[in-house]
Amino acid sequence: MYLFGISHYDLVFIMAALMYGYFITSRKK
């Protein structure tokens, strides 16, 4: 499935990266 030229696996990777980044920044507080 392609949405705006982004594949399903790319979307999953992006979401995982965002979640990881949010987790790291929230732990720094």
How far is it from the N-terminal to the C-terminal residue, by CA? 38 Å
Number of domains: 1
What amount of the residues lies in strands?
5-15%
Spatial order of the strands forming the largest sheet: 1-2
- Low-confidence segments, ≥5 residues, pLDDT <50? none
Radius of gyration: 12 Å
Mean pLDDT figure: 83
Summing up helix and strand content along with how strands pair, one would put the structural category as alpha+beta
Note the overall shape: rod-shaped
The proportion of residues forming helix, as a percent range, comes to over 70%
Tell me the series of helices and strands, N- to C-terminal: EEH
Structure, explained:
With 29 residues, this protein is α+β, with helices and mostly antiparallel strands. The chain has one domain. It contains one helix and two strands, in the order E-E-H. The chain has one helix spanning 8-28; strands at residues 2-3, 6-7. The radius of gyration is 12 Å and the shape is rod-shaped.
Summarize this, please?
The chain crosses the membrane at residues 6-25. By secondary structure, this protein is an alpha+beta fold.
What is the topological layout?
Layout: E1 2-3, E2 6-7, H1 8-28
Antiparallel strand pairs: 1-2
Tags for this entry?
single chain; 29 residues; alpha+beta; two-stranded antiparallel sheet; 2 strands; 72% helix; rod-shaped
